[in-house]
Every structure is written in structure tokens, then in C-alpha cells.
User: Which sequence fits this backbone?
DNA sequence: CGACTCCTACTACAATTTGTAGTGTAAGGA
DNA sequence: TCCTTACACTACAAATTGTAGTAGGAGTCG
């Protein structure tokens, strides 16, 4: 399950998926249980306008092809669920992106980090400072 | 000039552009002067296999549409040059991405930053520590 | 058993992005 | 006037994402 892009537009799952894909993943991840296409379709319908069953199926099966969803064939209707938890997914993306960012921009990124952290949540600055200390201590 | 994606694959300009677009931007940014399509095409030909003039033109004009290149109509052949310097471009992307990363992942990103910095270049850790101190002092 | 419902597979189309390239036109020089 | 050449316009292909029709098969109900 290799993501292609991190999108500048949107937020949350929309950074990684198309709009419909994101909504579907959202639903799957919000449900502890495995779900059928119908389940997902009905949840979608509650939120927005009616979605064609086949549309939902196609997108879900594409997500299976991409390795994001797992499909278990059951008698009447197949069960789908994410391959990894949302937390694990975000963890992976965060790690990958952070590494890429630093590889790509090096000290340029460092400069912006401090500003960005301060802007988003100054508490994160202390957290970061703490992490650095720990890292250095371990050597 | 709003970029769409940061690609996980590739490196450098390939993170932001298609392969040919990236090569073209590379050439434009490496040349202090404005260049014609022909200039760019010939540079490309030196590096790789022959490129059709029209192909280069189409891609360059698309880059103009995207606001990445500027086109100045001259008598016989138009002059093209990047709207911003490579440094300014990288600066903008770095800033944008860092902010997005932190908005999206918050403290998750903080954790990975330290590891990533240590992995790529431990010297960056000191730099970061320094920056944090400065930021805090100013308050 | 036969008819019906409903899930699934297969297929197809549209828009967008990126690479590729042909054709036609117009402008400038010989 | 004719020719070269740059440019505009147009088109097509592959990939990505959203959308949806059709057909077949499997279970259900009478």
C-alpha cells in the first residue's frame, strides 16, 4: 500500500485519497466492524446525496487493488475492512512525509518547522525540545 | 502558481513536476538568462534522446498556464523564464509543506522529525534546538 | 421447481494530468 | 515572391478518479 501523493489541497484523508475514496475510508475506519458495500453505501447516502451501488463497489474494489482495503468473500455479500488502522496509516504517512521533507529540504525545513509549530500549537515546541534532549542523551 | 501535489516518488523537482516538466524547469533554472523553446530543446537533446520541438513547446506553455514560467513575446521567438527563482520556489514549497505536515499530523510529526533529522543529518538537530531557543527567547 | 431479488463482475465513459507529436498559419528574411 | 521557422491549434495515449449500465449467478419466496 504505497501512497503516491500528498496533496496540498484539502485536509485529513483528502490529502491522500480522492474525495469519494476519502469518504469511504472515513466510514470504514469509523466502523470497528467489517462492512459490506451496501453498509458503506447507506452510510454515504445518509451524509450526502444518493450514491450508486456500483460506483461505491468500483471504488472500494480499487482500494482493494491498491492494498488499502481487504476483501473477504462471504456467502451473500463480501466483507471489507482497512488493511491497517487509521492510526497506523497516519503514522506511516507522517513518518514517510517527514523523512521526505527533510531529505528534500534539509535545513530549509528546519527553519520552517519552528515557525509552523509555533503557529499551529506552541506546546509542540516544548515537546520537540524535549524529544531532542532525549535523542541526544541516548548517545 | 499553486502546486498540487508533493510526490512520494522521485527527488528534487520531480517531487512537484512531471519528468519532462522537471527537466525543463531544471534547465531554465540553471540558465541565468531567458531562453527560447529552441534553447531548451537543444539542452534537452544534449542530455537525453531527441525531443520534438512541439512537445517541448506544449509543456513549456502549460508551465506558463500554471504560472510557473513567464513568456515574453519577442519578434521571432519568445523568451521564457521562471516566475520565481529556484531558491524562492523551494522556500515556498518547504514552508507550505512543513505547515501542512504539522497541521495534519501535529505531535505525530514532531516525533518523526527528530528521528528523521537524526537520520539525515544529526547536525540539523543542533540547528533546530538553537532555533527553538531563539523563538522562545523572543517572547 | 420457477420467478424474483440482489450481489458481483465486467465493461465503459468522462474529466484531468502529463507526454507526445502532426498540421496549418503567419511572420520575417532572402 | 518564396521559403524557413516559430507558434497556435488540435489530437491522442496512459493513468487516475468518479460514475454507472449490463449481465450473470446465487439465494429466496411462492
Assistant:
Amino acid at each position: 500500500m504505497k501512497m503516491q501523493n500528498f496533496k496540498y489541497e484539502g485536509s485529513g484523508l483528502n490529502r491522500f485519497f480522492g474525495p469519494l475514496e476519502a469518504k469511504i475510508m472515513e466510514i470504514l475506519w469509523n466502523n470497528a466492524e467489517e462492512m459490506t458495500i451496501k453498509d458503506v453505501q447507506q452510510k454515504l447516502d445518509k451524509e450526502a446525496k444518493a450514491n450508486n451501488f456500483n460506483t461505491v463497489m468500483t471504488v472500494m474494489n480499487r482500494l482493494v487493488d491498491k492494498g488499502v482495503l481487504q476483501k473477504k468473500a462471504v456467502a451473500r455479500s463480501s466483507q471489507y475492512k482497512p488493511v491497517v488502522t487509521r492510526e497506523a496509516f497516519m503514522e506511516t504517512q507522517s513518518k514517510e512525509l517527514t523523512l521526505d521533507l527533510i531529505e528534500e529540504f534539509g535545513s530549509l525545513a528546519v527553519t520552517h518547522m519552528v515557525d509552523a509549530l509555533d503557529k499551529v500549537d506552541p506546546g509542540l515546541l516544548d515537546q520537540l525540545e524535549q524529544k531532542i534532549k532525549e535523542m541526544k542523551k541516548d548517545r
Q: What stands out?
A: The radius of gyration of chain A is 19 Å. Residues 12-83 of chain A form a domain with the Arc Repressor Mutant, subunit A fold (CATH 1.10.10.10). Chain A touches chain B through 51 residues (CB under 8 Å).
